[in-house]
Every structure is written in structure tokens, then in C-alpha cells.
């Protein structure tokens, strides 16, 4: 399959008074139509910044994409003007968030917001756009969709509001949907319903989905492939089944050991001791070393390389580098 979106060596930095924060530091992945890629990591690992970079929504200054390529249908989005990006955003690449209120305006009815979104991108009159809005609300499983058009966002339950946001994101049949922790704020039952909905919509519409999450339960449910991130860098990238059966990176292994656990509303993976590092003052060598139970002397001075350990299985850890044994015994 030809990828619809290909990210190559993306580097997004924030230039703060306290120093340069390498929020995204060398991220590469590719995704094909109909496929779901999970990006997993703790808060601050760079997964949301990766998503914002793809949308070209990094606040600048202080943020800046300093290097890399984001190829959408073979064209580099980083070379597009803001005007060109506005045509792509929301129409060809859409994004949904943990909090629907990020994309829904509390003072307008759902009809007004949906019709407006549709009219920005599609050649339709108001009446056609309203019919399309009903269709979309129906598609995402809102009962008696037509009757709910005049409702305000707060008149929907949390789960239904999430459905409205998904309907808005799908208004123009995007080819890529980026979902940033879309179910984190919901209780477990509703969470499962929303994940089922996304899987069904993907089957019907054939879009590629990038699922950003801190929850490996979500990954297990919906993803085909997974990239695990730590401190701005990908540390492991492979098929979902391989990741669950043969995790290689000590951080991934730690994440695995932290499930099953009670669904937590906080973006936190408590089972791994210690905290994510301060990105302004990263230690030399492997960023995970202070929390890693396998850390060796060399981990403090050698930055592990991103290597393909097996077919389609990348990992960044000295334990798996060719000369690891030599390094250990030094
Ligand atoms: Fe742990 Fe060393 Fe591997 Fe980093 S490089 S994850 S510290 S073993
Ligand atoms: Mg986030």
C-alpha cells in the first residue's frame, strides 16, 4: 500500500528563555488508507506536538518545525503556505481532541457550527449543508439527529458531545483523522462505544487514523501499528501484535506491565517509577536511563541509535545495538 501520510525525521523545537525544548526530536512514520497507527507515551512525550506539527498548528514563536518532511499524498506540507494549509486542514486531514469543547463553540447551536464547517469546504447551499449535518449526526449514532440540530453543545452528554465533534471532523470526508486522546475523559463504557464508532467509520470511509493515547488498552483495541514515544523521541515502532507479544524497549515493557489497570482519567502511567525528564535539561545518553532498570554505564554517555531490530521492528536502546555486549562489558 502507498502511504497517504509519511513523516520523515520531524524535529519540532520550542525556543524558551530557559532553553531549547526538543519536543519532537526525530519522529518518522508512515500510514496508509484504512490503517490505524497508535502513538503512545506519557504527557510531554511529544505525541500531541507531533500531531500539531502535521496540522501545521505549532504556535510560533516559541515553537518551530526545524527539520523534517511531512508528505501528504507525496507533497510536503511543510512547504505549503498558510492559505494552502487551510484548505487541507479539516477537509483532508482532520483532528479530534479529548475535550470536545476545544472544537465546539458553546454559544452556537450544533446546526450553526456544522453548517458553517461544511460551507467552508464544500460547494453547497445552506439547505444542502443542513441535510449533510443531519446525515453526519446520524452516521455517528446520535438518535433523532434532525431534532438535535438546534441544541447547544452543553445540551449533549459527554459521550454524545464527543460524537458531535467526530461528526464535525468528518464533515468533509477527511483522508486522515488524527484523534488526540479522544476517549480519555469518558467513562469506560462510553469510551468503548466511541472506539467502536471510530472503527466502524474507518471501515465505511476508509480513512487513515492516527490514534494518540497514553492507554495501551486503546491501542490493543484499535491500532494496527504502534509508535511508542519517550521524551520527544520514538523508542519503539512495530506492528501492534509484535509490540504486545515481543516488546523490546524497557519503557514499552514497563507500559505493558502497567496493564491491566483501572482506566484512569489522568494522563499518567503510574506503574513506571519516576517522572518523565525535563526536556530543557535532558541527561546525556539515553533519556530513559534514570528510570530504566536495565540501565548500564554506557547508557549515561551513549545516545542509543534508532535501529531496525527485526523486519518492521524499530527500537532505540543500547541493549539491542550490535555492539551492546561489548559496551556492557567495557
Ligand atoms: Fe535502558 Fe540503556 Fe536501553 Fe536506555 S539504552 S532504555 S537506559 S537499557
Ligand atoms: Mg497530549
Automatic annotation (TrEMBL):
One of its GO terms (molecular function) is ATP binding. Pfam families: ABC_tran, oligo_HPY. GO terms for biological process: peptide transport. The keyword rRNA-binding does not apply. Keywords: ATP-binding, Cell membrane, Membrane, Nucleotide-binding, Transport. It is a peripheral membrane protein. Gene3D superfamilies: P-loop containing nucleotide triphosphate hydrolases (3.40.50.300). The keyword Glycoprotein does not apply. GO terms for cellular component: plasma membrane. Residues 5-256 form the ABC transporter domain. It comes from the Bacteria. It is found in: Cell membrane. NCBIfam families: oligo_HPY. Belongs to the ABC transporter superfamily. This is Oligopeptide transport system ATP-binding protein. It comes from Sediminibacillus halophilus.
Amino acid at each position: 500500500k502507498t502511504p497517504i501520510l509519511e513523516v520523515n525525521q520531524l524535529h519540532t523545537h520550542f525556543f524558551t528563555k530557559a532553553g531549547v525544548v526538543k519536543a519532537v526530536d526525530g519522529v518518522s512514520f508512515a500510514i496508509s488508507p484504512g490503517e490505524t497507527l497508535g502513538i503512545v507515551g506519557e504527557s510531554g512525550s511529544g505525541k500531541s506536538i507531533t500531531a500539531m506539527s502535521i496540522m501545521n498548528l505549532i504556535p510560533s514563536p516559541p515553537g518551530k518545525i526545524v527539520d523534517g518532511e511531512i508528505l501528504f499524498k507525496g507533497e510536503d506540507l511543510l512547504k505549503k503556505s498558510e492559505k494552502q494549509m487551510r484548505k487541507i486542514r479539516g477537509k483532508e486531514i482532520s483532528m479530534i481532541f479529548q475535550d470536545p469543547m476545544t472544537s465546539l463553540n458553546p454559544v452556537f447551536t450544533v446546526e450553526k457550527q456544522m453548517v458553517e464547517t461544511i460551507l467552508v469546504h464544500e460547494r453547497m447551499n445552506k439547505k444542502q449543508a443542513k441535510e449533510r449535518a443531519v446525515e453526519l449526526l446520524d452516521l455517528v449514532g446520535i438518535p433523532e439527529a434532525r431534532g438535535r440540530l438546534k441544541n447547544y453543545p452543553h445540551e449533549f452528554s459527554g459521550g454524545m458531545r464527543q460524537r458531535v465533534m467526530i461528526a464535525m471532523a468528518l464533515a468533509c470526508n477527511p483522508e486522515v483523522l488524527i484523534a488526540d486522546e479522544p476517549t480519555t475523559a469518558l467513562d469506560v463504557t462510553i469510551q468503548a462505544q466511541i472506539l467502536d464508532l471510530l472503527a466502524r467509520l474507518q471501515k465505511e470511509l476508509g480513512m487513515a487514523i492516527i490514534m494518540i493515547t497514553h492507554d495501551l488498552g486503546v491501542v490493543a483495541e484499535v491500532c494496527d501499528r504502534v509508535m511508542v514515544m519517550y521524551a520527544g523521541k520514538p523508542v519503539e515502532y512495530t506492528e501492534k501484535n509484535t509490540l504486545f507479544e515481543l516488546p523490546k524497549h524497557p519503557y514499552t515493557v514497563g507500559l505493558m506491565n502497567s496493564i491491566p489497570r483501572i482506566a484512569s482519567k489522568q494522563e499518567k502511567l503510574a506503574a513506571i517509577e519516576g517522572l518523565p525528564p525535563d526536556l530543557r535539561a535532558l541527561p546525556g545518553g539515553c533519556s530513559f536511563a534514570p528510570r530504566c532498570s536495565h540501565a548500564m554505564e554506557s547508557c549515561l554517555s551513549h545516545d542509543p541509535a534508532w535501529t531496525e531490530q527485526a523486519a518492521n521492528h524499530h527500537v532505540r536502546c543500547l541493549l539491542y545495538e550490535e555492539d551492546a555486549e561489548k559496551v556492557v562489558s567495557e
